Amino acid sequence: MKRIRIGNWRKQGFEFLLIFIAVISAFALNNWNENRKTEDSENKILTAIANGLEKDIDDIRSNKRGHKKGISACVYFRKLLTNQEVNPDSLLVQYENLTRTFISIQNVAGYETLKSQGLGLVSDDSLRLQIISLYEYDFNALRKLEEEYSELQFQKNYFNEINTVLAPNFEFDENGKPSGIALPLEISENQKKILLVYLSKIEENRNFILTFYSDIETKIESVRKNITKEI
């Protein structure tokens, strides 16, 4: 019978243990490297999203200012139509603001990169759902409201009719450019009532979109805050 020497058994066992530890260590190191790469990718994409959202907020605030100017223009022309005192020097600016419309621009590069690499790259479930909801629902809804919803197409819906009534009262300089308006306006009572209704509709719809903008602005700030915590 062949005898197994205890020394050899211990040596073989020790060598096996060393190999086992080396394999496990290599496996753990590989996992650590992969996790680090995943975490780095997540941080880079979240940073890109946060930077894009900062630009989105600038665009939102710019559009909000534009809609507020449109509301001020409604107030101005309501006074003009009801023979209240207005600043004649601001007429042309107010006229330009009255029916101005806007487009909604979103910086989606960071989000598109996230989708291409897999939405699951964002480890925080709550943050991931926030981001998806913001880009897939809120931004799309805002764009459709601002650019496609018929009630908000002020230039298309109201400018021609408003201009047809008011333009005959405009005064022009020697170069043929509008320089002011003759007061009191020479328009019929029916025309005045129609214009007053238009002004109310424009003001009402601008207030509506402003509420939507403010809601999305709050959501963007929340997402940016949570991204900052995550990275």
UniProtKB/TrEMBL annotation:
InterPro entries: DUF6090. It holds the Pfam family DUF6090. It comes from the Bacteria. This is Uncharacterized protein. The lineage of its organism: Bacteria, Pseudomonadati, Bacteroidota, Flavobacteriia, Flavobacteriales.
